[in-house]
Amino acid sequence: EAGVAQSPRYKIIEKRQSVAFWCNPISGHATLYWYQQILGQGPKLLIQFQNNGVVDDSQLPKDRFSAERLKGVDSTLKIQPAKLEDSAVYLCASSSSGPTDTQYFGPGTRLTVL
Amino acid sequence: KQEVTQIPAALSVPEGENLVLNCSFTDSAIYNLQWFRQDPGKGLTSLLLIQSSQREQTSGRLNASLDKSSGRSTLYIAASQPGDSATYLCAVSDLIFGKGTKLSVKP
Fold first, then answer.
1. pLDDT tens digits for A32-89?
2. Which residues of A touch B43 (CB under 8 A)?
3. Distance from A63 to chain B by nearest Cα, in Å?
4. Is A36 part of the contact surface with chain B (CB cutoff 8 Å)?
5. How far apart are CA A23 and CA A6, in angstroms?
6. CB A103 to CB B46 under 8 A?
7. Alpha-carbon span B9 to B81, nearest angstrom
8. Angle A53-A56-A58 (CA atoms, 0-180°, nearest 5)?
9. Burial class (CB in 10 A: 0-12, 13-18, 19+), B77
10. Burial state string for B26-40 with b = 16 or more CB within 10 A and e = fewer than 16
11. What is the SS3 assignment for A86?
């Protein structure tokens, strides 16, 4: 069974530029999560999708971050414009039906904002 | 607001030692708790998922317990090995993570 795929693995941009991350969850998993992990911290949930609908985006900075999950499969997370404090690892995870199930994580995208 | 705390932040032990990692949470209204392992530069790997109706789960040398009433979970690692060196994180069902315990097992 293929795991959660993410790309790119690394990205370096200047502040005020835009960037997008892509995630392909495990086949058949209805729930998809995006997390932000700052060095030395635990992951912080940014947004949770159930199929292609948003369940929780309460911690997503909506003035600069956006995310979509078209057709309930792949997802894209975008930052526009980026700030220095957005430097972090962005993790995508999926589970079969929701937070009561095991979450499977992708390798993450390490973003550096200069 | 749920808060998850993991103590200690770092732990160094000699190979072969049994050890316990701690996770505490402030709101006991959870329906599960999950333990993860994170290797440097990698994503998280799920180790054990304990449902609120369970008191413990075991997988190989790992045993996790859950006491909802006291807001605590422990991860017990038996006969530690250098390959166990990693950061261990716990997360409660409302998707709140602790900061993790960085474990180093010395040969």
1. 999 999 998 999 999 999 988 999 999 999 999 999 998 889 999 999 999 999 999 9
2. 4, 91, 93, 105-108
3. 23
4. no
5. 5
6. yes
7. 19
8. 135
9. buried
10. eeeebebbbbbbbee
11. helix
